[in-house]
Design goal:
Elements: E1 15-19, E2 22-26, H1 32-42, H2 57-68, E3 79-84, H3 87-95, H4 102-105, E4 108-115, H5 120-134, H6 142-152, H7 157-181, E5 185-186, H8 194-200, E6 208-217
Antiparallel strand pairs: 1-2, 3-4, 4-6, 5-6
Helix pairs in contact: 2-7, 5-6
């Protein structure tokens, strides 16, 4: 019997071909480019979350991985992610966030942190990780370690803090893109008191400092921002070609 689409009504409208006793069916799907841009157009900073709608464990794990896999300078990854599960802590953090309801109403609340103080141990841990992961003899990484230390530890403490914070913003971009593609709502937040966050979460004890927060979950039907048109510069007023 031939594999004509006429003999398989469910194949109608699908691309297909026959090769080596196999039939491959290709669904006509939108291009990756369109899927990505549609996700970017549909995302927005969610101001009101539905507290009754929760993300699955698998969804949260995927978001965590999107942050963990982010690009960072040298690949050093001088940051950590705090997932705040305690309702009591989230209530305290809301008070340190100018009473923004997203902190307590979203399904999950994420705090993105940078390392507080850098020393040789950070670089040693990194090159050991490279050695083990890529099966490179540890001694061959001594020069790379020294070059990184010379470049970074020679900077002032303030410059180091700024540099590490920039890495956290890259991670936030990954998180927001992942949320958009997965149709999860998010609200990137700088509007909080970092010193209070650090105290509530005892971050200083872990050599960490809070940089950004991001509640994630699903929008409330009462969030009026969801219906607003996205306001961005036109491409002509944004792009410079040289």
């Amino acid at each position: 019997m031939s594999y004509s689409p006429l003999n398989r009504p469910w194949l109608l409208g699908l691309g297909w071909f026959f090769s080596e006793s196999r039939i491959f069916v290709f669904m006509e799907i939108e291009s990756r480019e369109k899927l990505l841009l549609d996700a970017m157009h549909n995302r927005y900073a969610c101001k009101r979350f539905d507290p009754d709608k929760k993300l699955s464990e698998e969804q949260v794990d995927t978001l965590i991985e999107s942050i963990r896999l982010t690009a960072t300078s040298y690949g050093l990854q001088l940051m950590k992610l705090v997932v705040v599960e305690s309702e009591e802590l989230r209530t305290q953090l809301r008070a340190a966030s100018y009473n923004q309801s997203q902190v307590t109403d979203a399904s999950h609340f994420l705090v993105l942190c940078r390392e507080r103080d850098l020393d040789e141990s950070h670089f040693e841990a990194y090159v050991n990780n490279i050695s083990g992961t890529r099966e490179i003899p540890r001694e061959k990484l001594d020069l790379a370690k020294q070059n990184m230390m010379n470049s970074i530890l020679s900077q002032s403490a303030n410059d180091q803090e700024i540099w590490m914070s920039k890495q956290v913003y890259i991670a936030l971009g990954n998180l927001l893109s992942a949320c958009a593609i997965m149709e999860i709502d998010a609200c990137p937040m700088e509007g909080f008191v970092p010193e209070e966050y650090d105290k509530i979460l005892k971050l200083k004890d872990q050599n960490l400092a809070s940089v950004l927060a991001c509640p994630v979950g699903y929008r409330s039907v009462e969030d009026r921002n969801a219906a607003l048109k996205k306001v961005r510069r036109s491409k002509e007023n944004f792009l410079i070609s040289v």
